[in-house]
Every structure is written in structure tokens, then in C-alpha cells.
Design brief:
alpha+beta; Methyltranfer_dom; elongated; SAM-dependent methyltransferase; 9-stranded antiparallel beta sheet; methyltransferase; protein-lysine N-methyltransferase activity; disordered N terminus; binds S-adenosylmethionine; signal; 16 strands; Rossmann fold; Lipocalin; about 290 residues
């Protein structure tokens, strides 16, 4: 069975195990997992590399996949996949699913579980989540520890805007969840990876002689944005800016003080484009680049 002897002995590791098991006590009472098969019977709380194994109860798995709105179009990756139950549940919804698990016995068990379920759209690999490439995922699922979630946070935030992330029980530090569901003492948390839009932008509305160029300044803390737009001689704060994944929406005042609604798609790559809807409902295309 795979363990990390050094971390296993360390005080920090014991603290982490204690925290997880403490946080998991209600889950243990809820969960009625099928623990292993004839070839291997894992024990709840057995050591893992960075965190012990405890399976997510079925109702929490369902809530996580519901919040992420997993469909057959998605590629779902469970980080620290244990006996494979989250990835298998995602595959049952038709998604392509994948689990990364450090313990080879658990990997073998999860493969047998998938085979018994007759699923061909789920794979498992033995590996360390901190050394694995899962950038292609549309949905990431986690049941780790707060410290591990925070260590993963910059990697998750670099994933494509709109990637959905759902965690059983533990948060992401100061990256607030978009949704939390409480389930009989357990929590399912959900985030959407926001585009990186912080900074100054030059916005061009339309083309040709009637094109207008505006200045947009955005301040961002994860999915929360605020900002200002300079439109002619008017410099005004954006009204009700919202950012979900790569979709940025806000209202700005034009030079005449009229309200214009901007609906944009933004990437991490310093590009933004979309539609601006004027006070009379007229629509014009715009593009924006970092200035
Ligand atoms: C709390 S269990 C969650 C299992 C499963 N995701 C679920 O929710 O039912 C965490 C799992 O992560 C595995 N794990 C711990 N550190 C890991 C690492 N660095 N890379 C891959 N797996 C790891 C453990 O072996 C364990 O199976």
C-alpha cells in the first residue's frame, strides 16, 4: 500500500489526518460504502500520501455532480480518487471520467469497480495529483484537505475559464465558493474558474470611421470584479459587474450619461470580445485588448 513514510510520521501529517477524520465524522455516519471486493478491502481512514482515504457519501457525490451540472459533454477528473466512486458516478452520467490516485491498490480496486459497472468511459491512473496534468478537465472533483485545496488553487485558477470545481467539505481559502449545499452535516462546495481580467483594457466598439475607443480598468479578486470606464469625457464606475467563468457582464455610462450593457467573453490570454447594447437596444460588437 502506498504511503509517504516521512509525511506519515510528521506532526503535520498527523494534524491533517486528525482534521480530516474530525471533519469526516458525520460522513462516516452517513456513508455506507461498499468497502472493496474479494481482492482488496481498504479501511476507512487508511493512510494516503497527503491525506487518508474516506469515501464521499453517495448523496454528497450526487450533490457535487449536480452542482457542476455534469453531462456527457464533460471530462471529469477526481483528484485523489480512492475507490473511484466519484469518477464512476460521473461516468454513469455519460461523462468521460478519470481518477488520479496515489495508492496502487486503490487504483486497481477502482478499475475493477468500473469494470463491474460495465463502464468504458472511465479510467484510473496511479499518480501524485501534484505531479499530474489535468488541464483538459471540464470538471474537477476533490475530497482532500483545506491545505491541499489551497495548494491546488493556483493550478485550478490557471485552468480554462469556466472549468467547474467541486469539493466535498473543504473550502479554497479566500476563494469563496459560488454555491454551497449542506447535506446532513456535510458540505458540497462549487466554484467556476474565472477568467483573469484584472488590469487596464482598450475597448474598441465597432469598426471604421464610427468606431469608438474607450478605456476600461478592472480590479479582480477571483470571481469578484469592479472597475471604471472612461467614455469620452465621462469616467464612471461600472454598474453591477459580474464574472462567471469567461463571461463578463457590466453596465457603463457613455459620454451622454446613458446606460450601456456590455456582454463579453474573456480568456486568460488578454483578449475580450462581445456585444454592447445601447440605451435604445441597438447592439454593436466590441473587442478589447490589454493596454
Ligand atoms: C478523502 S479520500 C477521497 C477519495 C474519493 N475522492 C472520494 O471522495 O470518495 C482522498 C484520497 O486521496 C488519495 N491521495 C492522497 N494524497 C494523494 C496524492 N498526493 N496524489 C494522489 N492521491 C492522493 C488518498 O489515497 C485517498 O484515496
Amino acid at each position: 500500500m502506498a504511503t509517504a513514510p516521512v509525511s506519515r510520521r510528521s506532526a503535520a501529517w498527523k494534524l491533517c489526518c486528525g482534521a480530516l477524520l474530525l471533519g469526516l465524522a458525520p460522513a462516516l455516519s452517513l456513508a455506507q460504502p461498499k468497502l472493496g471486493d474479494e481482492a482488496y478491502q481498504p479501511e476507512v481512514g487508511q493512510p494516503g500520501k497527503d491525506v487518508v482515504w474516506v469515501p464521499t457519501p453517495d448523496e454528497v457525490v450526487k450533490a457535487m455532480l449536480d452542482m457542476a451540472q455534469v453531462t456527457s459533454k464533460d471530462y471529469v477528473v477526481d483528484l485523489g480518487s480512492g475507490d473511484g466512486k466519484i469518477a464512476i458516478a460521473a461516468a454513469r452520467r455519460g461523462a468521460r471520467a478519470h481518477g488520479i490516485e496515489y495508492n496502487p491498490d486503490m487504483v486497481a480496486l477502482s478499475k475493477r469497480n468500473a469494470e463491474r459497472a460495465g463502464l468504458k468511459n472511465v479510467t484510473f491512473v496511479q499518480g501524485d495529483i501534484f505531479e499530474s496534468d489535468f488541464r483538459d478537465a471540464d470538471v474537477i472533483t476533490l475530497y482532500l484537505l483545506p491545505s491541499l485545496n489551497e495548494k491546488l488553487r493556483p493550478i485550478l485558477l490557471d485552468m480554462k475559464p469556466g472549468t467547474r470545481v467541486t469539493s466535498h467539505q473543504f473550502d479554497m481559502g479566500d476563494w469563496m465558493p459560488d454555491e454551497v449545499r449542506e447535506l446532513d452535516g456535510r458540505r458540497a462546495l462549487f466554484w467556476v474558474v474565472p477568467a483573469k481580467v484584472q488590469g487596464d483594457w482598450s475597448v474598441q466598439i465597432g469598426t471604421g470611421p464610427r468606431a469608438e475607443t474607450l478605456k476600461l480598468s478592472l480590479t479582480q479578486s477571483y470571481q469578484k470584479v469592479s472597475g471604471r470606464m472612461v467614455w469620452g469625457t465621462r469616467d464612471a464606475a461600472l454598474d453591477q459587474p459580474s464574472l462567471r467563468g469567461g463571461r463578463l457582464v457590466f453596465t457603463a455610462l457613455d459620454a451622454n450619461g446613458q446606460r450601456n450593457r456590455f456582454e463579453a467573453t474573456a480568456g486568460h490570454d488578454g483578449r475580450m470580445s462581445g456585444t454592447v447594447i445601447g440605451p435604445n437596444g441597438q447592439r454593436r460588437n466590441f473587442t478589447a485588448t490589454r493596454s
